[in-house]
Design brief:
Blueprint lengths: L1 H19 L5 E9 L2 E9 L3 E9 L8 E3 L5 E3 L5 E10 L4 E7 L5 E7 L6 E10 L2 E10 L2 E8 L17 E7 L7 E9 L19 E3 H21 L22 H8 L1
Parallel strand pairs: 8-14
Antiparallel strand pairs: 1-2, 1-13, 2-3, 3-6, 4-5, 6-7, 7-8, 9-10, 10-11, 11-12, 12-13
């Protein structure tokens, strides 16, 4: 028990150093539930830049193997990792998010999203232990969804799963509390620190200028396709029949966007 306590002290001391020394990285696995469909997603951060991805392949390290090097630093053995599928790139103190998505047919979309300003309400009286780490409760509204998060100030990194950030510490658990629509949740499953694999955490916009599109254009294009589908369904109805189409609400975690709210207010 005493040895475990010492290891935890060393671990969190190193993580505080991570917040200052951007050359070190931390790797985290999140257990994700999307409307009762489970998956695992991953976050890598150096305290300034973060990469969140939905798919790793060829990752065989099934358990943490703590070892001490000559400088008495706690390290964990790891195998090589390949990154694939959806990637989100974020930077501390910036609301700009870049992401790339690879479809099964090989098609790739590269987009930029301007995240809304997070207005978090922190309640330090409500705490939770996640992987032996004390976390504090925080709530906000994100694009129409009521969100509850638990973050830890013991890991002072402004990052979290999906598009969530803006708290004075790493988000270890987050979920929506809406009574309607799908249920989403992310919770820390495992971590590696220090994480020594060479992974690019910075998105270079100059390399993708010709192919870069806005997330807003993707959303509007999808909505337009749905609208055209509904109109086509109406045109194919037999003469004399009637079809009432109601505008359906989005069931995902992003239900309404900032530009839609601005249009409504105007």
């Amino acid at each position: 028990m005493k040895c475990k306590f010492i290891i935890l002290i060393l671990f969190f001391t190193n993580l505080n150093i991570l917040a200052q020394n951007k050359s070190n990285k931390i790797y985290l696995e999140y257990r994700v539930m999307r409307n009762r469909i489970p998956s695992t997603e991953y976050l890598i951060s150096n305290g300034k830049n973060s990469l969140y991805t939905t798919k790793f392949i060829n990752f065989d390290n099934k358990k943490n193997n703590f070892k001490k090097d000559e400088e008495n630093t706690i390290k964990i053995e790891q195998n090589k990792i390949k990154i694939n599928k959806l990637k989100y790139f974020t930077t501390q103190n910036s609301n700009i998010l870049y992401f790339s998505s690879i479809f099964p047919n090989g098609k790739k979309i590269i987009a930029v999203d301007s995240l809304p300003e997070y207005t978090w309400k922190i309640n330090k009286k409500e705490t939770k232990q996640i992987n032996n780490v004390t976390c504090y409760k925080a709530t906000t509204i994100f694009r129409g969804s009521n969100i509850t998060a638990y973050y830890t100030s013991e890991i002072p990194i402004d990052a979290g799963p999906f598009k969530f950030k803006g708290l004075p510490g790493l988000i270890l658990e987050i979920y929506n509390t809406d009574t309607k629509g799908s249920k989403y949740s992310w919770k820390l499953k495992n971590f590696i620190y220090p994480f020594n694999e060479k992974v690019n955490l910075v998105f270079n916009e100059e390399n993708y200028k010709e192919n870069l599109v806005t997330y807003r254009s993707i959303v509007e294009q999808f909505d337009k396709k749905m609208d055209n589908f509904n109109k086509k369904s109406l045109s194919n109805m037999p003469r004399g029949s009637r079809l009432i189409l109601e505008k359906s609400e989005r069931s995902g975690i992003e239900k309404i966007y900032e530009w839609e709210e601005e249009t409504t207010q105007n």
